[in-house]
Each structure stands twice: as structure tokens, then as C-alpha cells.
Amino acid sequence: MSLELPVMLTIVLFLALGIFSQWL
Questions:
Q1: Which ranges does the record mark as transmembrane (predicted)?
Q2: Helix segments in the chain, DSSP class H
Q3: What is the pTM for the complete model shown?
Q4: pLDDT digit string, tens, across residues 3-17
Q5: pLDDT(1) > 80
Q6: φ, ψ at 16 (rounded to 5°)
Q7: What CA–CA distance (Å, rounded) separates 7 from 4?
């Protein structure tokens, strides 16, 4: 297994969290 998938999921999660916080 490569570590690319967990890293990409973490980056997407933080990006979504940042965008969601701007909507509030």
C-alpha cells in the first residue's frame, strides 16, 4: 500500500474544513 491515499484524504479534509469554516 502507498501512503498517497491517506495523505490526499487528509489534504482534501483540511481543504473542505477551511472552505466550510468560511461559509459560516
A1: 6-23
A2: 4-23
A3: 0.55
A4: 788 999 999 999 999
A5: no
A6: -65, -40
A7: 5
